[in-house]
Amino acid sequence: MATKVDGKKLKSGNGNLAGLTKADYRGRETTLCQGCGHNSISSQIVAASFEMSIPPERIIKLSGIGCSSKSPAYFMSRSHGFNALHGRMPTTATGAILANTSLKAIGVSGDGDTASIGLSHFIHLVRRNVPMVYIVENNGVYGLTKGQFSATADKGQELKKLGVNPFMPVDICMEALIANAGFVARSFAGDPKQVKELLKAALSFKGTAVLDIISPCVTFNNRDESTKSYTWGRKYEAPLHDVTWVPKRDEIRIEIEPGKLKEVEMHDGSMLVLKKLEQDYDPTDRMEALNMLAETCCGGILVTGLIYMSKEQPPLNEVENLVETPLTLLTEEELRPTSASLKKTLEDYR
Amino acid sequence: MTQMEFTQVKLSPVDDPEAIINNFSMVVATVNGSGSQTSNLALIRALFRMGIPISGKNLFPSNIQGLPTWFTIRASKEGYTARRDTTEILVAMNHTTMIEDLEGLVEGGVCFYPDHIARPEIRDDVIFYPMPVQEIIKDNNPPRELRDYMSNMVYVGVVSQMVGIDIVAIRGALETHFRGREKPIAMNMAIVEAGAAWAAENLVKQDHYYVEADNQTEGLILLDGNTAAGLGSIYGGVSFAAWYPITPASSLAEALQGHLPRLRRDQDGKNTYAIIQAEDELAAAGMTVGAGWAGARSMTSTSGPGISLMAEFAGLAFFAEIPIVIWDVQRMGPSTGLPTRTSQGDLLFVRFLGHGDTQQLLLLPGNMEECFEFAWRAFDYAERFQIPIFVMSDLDLGMNLWMSKEFDYPDEPMDRGKVLSAEELEQVEEFARYRDVDGDGIPYRTLPGTDHPRAAFFTRGTGHDDAAVYSERPEEYVANMERIARKLETARGKLPKPIIHKSKGARAGLVGFGSTDPAIMEAVDRLAEAGVNVDYMRLRAIPFSDEVLEFIEKYDRTYVVEMNTDGQLYQLLQLAAPANATKLVKMNHNDGLPLTARWITESVLGQEAK
């Protein structure tokens, strides 16, 4: 769709408001498998950032370890990136974001990273409401180590090497909700339009925005019966609504009969417009969100869309009462108290 | 509460030909959680205010309430501050340990005890002073909830009277403790004065231990190493800290949290720092690394078990070359070990912390001034060398009370290291994150948010070429590791040099580091008295500088004094000086208690007699 910002019409391929072309958002060539869902998500991250005119220099990319975590190398080479340790991305992200709150942070993680080795860090990041977009590229399998079950694998899921998984999966959206996340969405790499719109909303949200994106692993977990496969996702995706992100001050152009449209306002004044589909769903009701997830978790459908949003919790940078200037840009005078203050402080130790 | 002016009956050692003045160790035996800290601090601060050199050590259990605790105050007119292995004065407030406490007293020693405790009849060679604690409390009737705390003030009064501690100095100490709040000061002073008055009236001085005002503490301060480290970090411009509670390191982060709001808020009351209590030490290290990567002056503080968890990030920060500062306030290992006892047992582990070929840089503070100084310098080193800096403190330094000269304000501007700005990027043809442009092994970095299309790079713990791009090429891996080795060599010459104390005609060398310094200094004097002169070198950093290797070369025997079981410094020195390895003599002891001068003296004399 053609987006209108401040009266200017944007088309991909042309320059954006930052004066950049889409090529300026390019990453290195991907080394992931052909058809990997992660590549599709990378493209949407590029598209969303470009269309929102966020200069890549104002973005930091953070990841852990795994196929998903390699992907930040494959988008926006002009953004600083940090491919840290398995499961620990929430921790490096917390430090980096507090050190420089003027930057937008995009974290890319996988289901092994977030739901297994780093589950506690993930929950604590959400609990602290670290302002960032937290993407889980969820494929139910360990790809880089060649096909072991992850904690989001379905009970009964079958893998070539390991047989049948006997355990219930961890639901990343439910974990996020229980940890009091202010923005929880689920999407499907096979639905790039929705991925992009949700990404834009997430980038406009001040707080942790969790995006659990089912992202098929074409090599190890793409059998038709797997709930993390393309075939299954295409067949059973059940969007809660049709989502469109609209920048601030843009006129909503979507013609729709009254009652079918719900708007959710982001911190920066932009809107996520939710068009009603088959049934009513209120993404501002946490209990409804939890119930919906509980009911649909093993129900043979893939529910996608904005599951929950609330601006109630302040983001961590506000809690920390930080100065406006990024901590990384403070001068020596601002960082080192005076010698007189040292003398005075030491008087307490006589 | 008495409103009357209290006048202390003055004690004088003049008539006592056997008087021992300002030279004793006093142990206060209590149960933990009984609120004796205020009383013990009042005693030690009063002695300090009287100008007498002192040190204070709290020997406490890993427990909240009910287990034995000993607070030791050493007074030494010669200025020695190490732990002493004799006790001259005992305040026996804990009946469950009274037998062993009494057994530890020297002949002619003194025992103060509450008269409601049945005194074991095991020593007839010490002086006993009973104290009517319950009676005095009853007479003064403090608020019920404060009764237990107040009880401990009785011994402050009685002891002060019997050894001659100035009650005015006790009041001054309480003013410091309660930050001038008159109500608690007055309440506590009432009990102290009642105790002192009772003692003046009812006890006759039979022992020979006296306190006399001196002038040796003028201009000095009295504090613990964790506070010194916290302050040093603040004056080093710390802008990010993450931590997880652990004994004996928690009070370092708490010192930050206590002082930062006053020292580091801008005119609008906004913080120029962030401090996060993390979910575990993995996270504390990760946050520290993330902030260091972004360009903050970033630190964490922990102890052994936390260091184990931080190993993963320590390796990443080493290989990805991210400046961070990690304080290790060491305690006894292995494993959970003795959480409330001191040790120097993390040296080897931290030196090579991280899998693969990781070498870390260690600073070794030996006193309060260095806890402060190394705290601020650590950020300069970290940013200059783009590497973690580990500052190896221990429980004895970190949590016990030490006299110190006032800290010198940092005498050098901050060194933010090789960071390229957008303007500087414009001047250079090419930016490659890990390229050795200057030949010192230290590459240039850019900070996230640098507004230049060539500023960005991709930080990773995986193998990389000099442009930070993933690489598995053998020659690129080797070249990178060789450059890092050059960087370490650059750092080796820049870290703090050892302090060498020379003696005339020294026949052997002595090497030590950290909290054992006071015990070694005292031992050096005692050895000289015994006719064995030694030169003493105190290390202040690892890897070792050339001066360290030259020192070892010089003597037939160099004793390596340390507080761990495996002789870890001894091993590191052998590795660094293989040709002189046989000249080194292992001299280690590790039982959880700080080393004493006596142990060192006797160990060296025993070896020298061979």
Key terms:
heterodimer; A: 350 residues; alpha/beta; 8-stranded mixed beta sheet; 3-stranded antiparallel beta sheet; 17 strands; globular; disordered N terminus; B: 610 residues; 6-stranded mixed beta sheet; 19 helices; 24 strands; 37% helix
- The total of helices of chain A stands at 12
Query: Which descriptor suits the 3D outline of chain A?
Result: globular
Distance between the ends of chain A = 71 Å
Could you give a short account of the major beta sheet of chain B?
8 strands, mixed
Unreliable spans of chain B: none
Major beta sheet summary of chain A: 8 strands, mixed
- What percent of residues of chain A adopt helix (DSSP H or I)? 25-40%
What's the mean pLDDT score of chain B? Answer: 96
The total beta strand count of chain A reads 17
What's the quaternary structure here?
heterodimer
- The share of residues in extended strands of chain B comes to 15-25%
Describe the structure.
The complex is a heterodimer of chains A (350) and B (610). By secondary structure, chain A is of the alpha/beta class. Chain A is built from twelve helices and 17 strands. Chain A has helices at residues 37-51, 67-70, 89-99, 111-117, 119-128, 172-178, 192-203, 230-236, 286-296, 316-319, 332-335, 339-346; strands spanning 4-5, 8-9, 59-63, 80-83, 104-110, 132-138, 141-142, 148-149, 158-159, 163-164, 183-188, 208-214, 237-239, 241-246, 261-265, 271-276, 302-309. In chain A, a hairpin with a 3-residue loop joins β9 and β10. The longest helix of chain A has 15 residues, at 37-51. Chain B has 610 residues and is of the alpha/beta class. Helices cover 37% and strands 20% of the residues of chain B. Chain B is built from 19 helices and 24 strands. In chain B, strands 10, 11, 12, 13, 14, 15, 16 and 22 form an eight-stranded mixed β-sheet that branches. Chain B has a six-stranded mixed β-sheet with strand order 3-4-2-5-6-7. Chain B is globular and about 85 Å long. The relative contact order of chain B is 0.09. The model of chain B has no long low-confidence stretch (mean pLDDT 96). The chains are: A alpha/beta (350), B alpha/beta (610). The interface between A and B is large, with 61 and 75 residues. β4 (80-83) of chain A pairs parallel with β18 of chain B, so a sheet runs across the interface.
